[in-house]
# Entry
Amino acid sequence: MSATDMVVFNTQLKTATVERLTQMSDAFNAASNGSIILSNAGNMGDFLEWSYFKNLGSAIRDVNIYGTNSSAGTTPVSQGQINTVKAHTAFGPILFEPKQFTLIQENPDEALRVISTSLAQAMLQDQLNKALFSGTAAIGEVAALNQAGVAITQVELNNTHALFGDRSMELTTQVMTGAAYHQLIGNALENGNELFSEGTVTIVDILGKRSIITDSPALVDGTDQKVLCLTANSLTVEPNGDFDSNIETTNGKQRIERTYQSEWSDNLGVKGYAWDITVKSPDTAALGTGANWAKEWEDKNTAGVLLTAPLVAAP
# Structure
């Protein structure tokens, strides 16, 4: 295949990958009940920052109309700031020899389908992993939003929801590993209806709540399993529309070699939390470090709650 053909193929591959990822993201967003949002943004710079006015509910007070009319304490109107952070990701280089890549010459459309689907699935899983590392790290720093040291059962999951008090009904989606999911099924729950399946990610409905099943490393801590219970728009992943890829040819060996490589960036955000802006271009480990996230909103206005529990054999 000539260099010109490879340029055309690379352009088609880029387009097919972005289109496939967009389709998968739209389906995921709908099935996940809007708790984790994968959406295009095009953010500039290392962070997306915005200000908000803090709640003034604390200004309400009792008044004794028969008492001394003394001065009342003032409540200042103040602003806070939250932000998302831009993380960069790459794929490859993938090495191949043109003579071994005959699939492209025989059927370019089939090659596009196979490669773009595989790459889009990898991108979706990476975005979800980064979002979950961010969510577990941020929520994990707030003791009042954590339930730990108990078994994964429906009772303990309900106790975790209770951390949100009278706003617990806003916790509409749960995220867990396959092992945690089967632990719950072993507790005599009915297997849920499947709503979405792509690669290693599945979304089911359990007792009226959406459950995202994925063996993300963000949900495993030694022998413990983590279950995230989320509200709407809790975790956001915003691809910045900067997906780029390249195919290069290398001479000098007995056979010609080619490499494929791509890169892009996403902005990660957790509802109610601000990223430490002294940390730029974070890797996945940094996103999963609780000290890099600070809670800015009141507990019940944030992303959700977290259950951390040792996984035990189902009865």
In short: The chain has six helices and 16 strands. The helical segments are 3-31, 102-106, 108-140, 154-161, 178-186, 284-287. The longest strand covers residues 79-96. The two ends are 58 Å apart (CA to CA).
